[in-house]
C-alpha cells in the first residue's frame, strides 16, 4: 500500500519505525506490535478498515460510515482533522479584515514543515497556502500553491479515504482540467467508495 501511494521507506520512517523495520515487515521477515503497526498505517494515510478491506475480499466488506452507532467518528477522520482545522479557520475568516488566524496557522505550519518535511506536512502546507491565497483573493496563486496535492493525487495508484477527502477539500483551488482528470482517476481507483 505504501508503494501504491508513491511513498518511499525513508518518507514513512520516523523515530517509531525505522527504514529497516518497515522493510523487514513488508518482506514478511518480522512482525510489528499493534501500536507500531497503527502508527505505520497513519504514516501512509491508511485507516485500519481500509487495510483490512484491501487484505480481504474487498466486496465482502461494508464501507465504514463516518460515525459509528455511538456517534464517534470513524478512524478515517483522524487523517483529515488537520485539513478540517484549516477549513474552520477559513470559514471564520472575514476577508479582507480578519484573516489573521489563517495567516498565523500558515506561519506555524511553515515552521513545522522546516523542522519535519514529512509528506503529510507538505500536503498540509500546500493546502494552507492555497487557503491563505483564497482569503487574500489571490485565486491564481491558490491554483499554483495546490499543485503538490495535485501531484500527490496523480501519483497514487490505490486511492483510499484520505485521497478522496483530499480531492474533495481541494476542489475550490483546482483548475477545471485538474478537477476533471482527478475525478476520473478517483472513480477508477476508489472502487470501494
Radius of gyration, whole Å: 18 Å
How far from one another are the termini?
17 Å
Structure classification: mainly alpha
Count of runs of 4 or more consecutive helical residues: 11
Strand content: under 5%
Structure explained in plain terms:
- This protein is an all-alpha fold and 193 residues long.
- The chain has two domains: 3-44; 76-189.
- The chain is 62% helix and 0% strand.
- The chain has eleven helices and no strands.
- The longest helix is centred in the middle third of the chain and has 17 residues, at 76-92.
- The chain is globular, with a radius of gyration of 18 Å.
- 26% of the residues are buried.
- Mean pLDDT is 82; it is low at 58-73.
Descriptors:
193 residues; DNA binding; HTH-type_regulator_Rgg; Transcription_activator_Rgg_C
What is the strand and helix layout of this fold?
Blueprint: H1 9-12, H2 19-26, H3 34-43, H4 48-55, H5 76-92, H6 100-115, H7 119-135, H8 139-145, H9 147-155, H10 161-170, H11 176-189
Helix pairs in contact: 5-7, 5-10, 6-7, 7-8, 7-9
Quick summary:
With 193 residues, the chain is mainly alpha-helical.
